[in-house]
Specification:
two-stranded antiparallel sheet, Homeodomain-like_sf, IS630 family transposase, 204 residues, 8 helices, single chain, mainly alpha, Transpos_IS630-like
Length: 204
Amino acid sequence: MIKLKLNEEEKAALNRLRRIQKSNQGERATYVLLSNAGKSVSEIANHINRNAHTVRLWLKRYATDGIKGLQTRKKLGRPAKKAPVIDSQLSELLTQSPQAYGYQEAGWQINLLRDWFKKHGLSACENTIVKSLNKLGFVYKRFSKTVPSNTPSAFEKKAGVAKLVEEIKNQSKKEAVEIFFSDESHFSNQPYVSRGWFKRGEKK
């Protein structure tokens, strides 16, 4: 039977952890506080809706290592085998624009890279890709102002607005027309500023 006794300082630290950490550590702090309040392992397990073995494990870790014992221990596991494959593919992918691979964006984004890997049967999370990009010397930055090929010119935009105004005028002769607009909305003829992953020091 495990029952922990805490001093005021320990209780304060656990309560802080319980309030701040909405994750596993916060829940584990609750196990310890309930044990200090006189609850048995089975009572805590029923109250939190957890397995008694899990509760007992974390109470023992706290008894041995204190509040640090409530942290999740890293699993050693086997070295990742797909990291070299991801590195190799990224090195090749980022020599070309995403448009060369059928995407619309001008610069490579993490979601595009994940999509490409998925289509080619390789699952890669955002963190894995970012680590690989950093290791390979890529950085995420803005590059030169560019206008997408399908962007209308300033003249075409003005002509389009004029046409729309004329259509509204004609429609208003037949029936009442309501026009809605968003506050502080505006049109800009400035080029779109894109971002993407590029080799450090490379200008785009």
